[in-house]
Predict the 3D structure of the following.
Amino acid sequence: MRHVTFSALLAVVGLGAGGRVALATPFEPATIPDQVDAVGHLDVDALRRTQVFAAAGGQAALDAALEEAPPKVRPVVRALAATLRGVSFWHAGDDHGAVYLETRDAKSLGQLVGRLPATPAQPIDGFPTYTITEHDKTDKTHLAGIYGDTMVLADSEDGLRQSLRVLAGRAANLAGSKALPMASRQGVFVFVAIGDHLLGSIQKTARARMLQLSMRSLVVDVGESAGQVTAIAHAEMRSADAGQKATSILEGLRAMASLSDDPMAHTLLD
């Protein structure tokens, strides 16, 4: 999507609610349209419970981050932080997608929207929608919609409409699609999958040799188990030759790491 500044701001500083006990919010493919180029999810509840979150400064660091929000939306961001439980996104085409802010309370979410610099817009399939303008040098305009306890933020009416229809069960979703590979394991708090079309665009401009290889799909997840943070990347190559090249690059990186005095380099590549 072209403009995700406002969306990303709400998503990131929304982590700032600590101390609540709640069920985690794992990635749910049934909430995503069936034909997408990329999808991702952040399980906010799961992240708050990790040791890596505490090591990064925990609640104190995020309280400080809240102060970076524009003054007009800062009170709303603080309130949203107390109820946010998950963030998902999807992207399709050249300029098309949405971000979902999943909360614990539909009533509170409706009240928060009324405090945003938002203007009511035409409902989509009966769901309330709004326009939100970032009053800065860019004056970017975003579209927002509400489905139960979830706020959808998008840069186009089409992206917003698709999201609301899928959330309502009125359109095909990713759970029954083979557009992107899905993978999950215990303890994952971040998940991202990128498909063929978007990878092709990345390969045209990428400088990293690995990204220049002919990949069909890329799935990355990050989790924590017994205090150990692990990241798994699964790449499907277009050919056996590309697979061999990828293996050679990785072996080269491991060889370089073996010469390093930094133990973190060994841990990362192992």
The chain has eleven helices and ten strands.
